[in-house]
Each structure stands twice: as structure tokens, then as C-alpha cells.
Amino acid sequence: MGKRVALVLAGCGVFDGSEIHEASAALVKIFAPSIEQRDVVNHLKGSPTDEKRNVLVESARLARGNIQDLAELEASEFDAVIFPGGFGVAKNLCSWAVDGKNCTVNEHVRSTLQAFHSAKKPIGLCCISPVLAAKVFPGCEVTVGQDKNVDGRFPDAETASAIAELGCKHICKNVNESHVDKANKIVTTCAFMCKAPLHEIFDGIGTMVQEVLKLA
């Protein structure tokens, strides 16, 4: 029997929801919180609009409608959970985009993470979503790539410093790699936190998924 993995989305689209390439690289049973997006971004112009959208409704676009409210996710029914990245993680699943290391995490996101962690079931996170683990599990190990903007490929390298300030250990990794925190069963990869060819990003997400399945 295959492993049962839950995927938690933050909307649809890199600038205000889940990053689509990251989500499609790991599509399984899908959930999202039924909350209002912090903002709605015109992905053609890259600027906010006056629209109001719901995270669950927007995430349903990625899931082809086959999606459930995150409040209904039961950790006992799954072997692992994965969180793709995208600015929606930092805007909708938590307030990192505004508050950085002082952010708050959505109650259903926090309870989901804690439930899988308590059950000793693996948690996979990519791109910016490792900050969720850093906020919920002080002392854990995660990667968002490099802690310096190496060759201009890691423009958000300061995120690593913020993670360290939360009492967690940031592990520097290349885009095609992932890091496994064996003690906490947390697997992370940087994905689009690195400016890299799409196939290298897919390779990193692939290693993250493989390591999650090994731990499941």
C-alpha cells in the first residue's frame, strides 16, 4: 500500500498563494485553510488588486476541485504532510511576510504541524514554508538554501538568519538537495528561494518527497 500524504496549500499562485510548480511536483491528498487571503496579486503585473479571495477556493484551482478544509485534516489518517512554498505561505498560513520572525501562525496550520510532529510522522516543507517549522518547533533544523546571497542566486538569504534567531539551526544546502532533521522528522528544501533552472528546483523537491516517504 502506498503512503498517505497530505498536501497543504496556501492559495493559487506564487505571489499570493502556493507556488504552482512546487505544488504540482508533490500533488497528493490536498487541504487548505478556509480563510481570506491577505492580498490578491495580479500575476501579470505583479501588483496587488482590490479583490478579495478565499484560500481554500483558490487552492481548489490547483486541486481540480478535489480539496478539503484544513480544519478537517486528521493526522491519524495520513503517514506524512507536505507544505509547498509561495508567498501565500508567508501571507496566509502565517504572517512572516509582514512580521518576520515575530509572525503568528494560522491556528489550523499550527495544530496540523503539531499533530504530525506529536505522532512522529514526517513533515516536508519547501521554499519559504520551512519558517513554519522554525516558528512552531524551536530547536529544529531546516534549510531555505544558503545564508549568504551566493552569486546572486539567494536574494532572500537573510531568512536563514531570522530562522537562527528563532533558536533553530539553519543548514546550508544547494537547490537540488534537501535536509533531513531526523530527530523531528522534518525534511526541507529551498526550491524557489534559489534562482535556479526549473529542473534543479524539481530535483530538490524530489529529494524532499523521497526523504519524507522514507521516514513515513
From TrEMBL:
- In terms of superkingdom, the source organism counts as Eukaryota
**SUPFAM superfamilies under this entry?**
Class I glutamine amidotransferase-like
InterPro entries for this protein:
Class_I_gatase-like
What PANTHER family does the record tag this protein with?
ES1 PROTEIN HOMOLOG, MITOCHONDRIAL, GLUTAMINE AMIDOTRANSFERASE LIKE CLASS 1 DOMAIN CONTAINING 3A-LIKE1-RELATED
Q: What is this protein called?
A: GAL3A protein
Organism this protein belongs to: Eudyptula minor
Upper lineage ranks? Eukaryota, Metazoa, Chordata, Craniata, Vertebrata
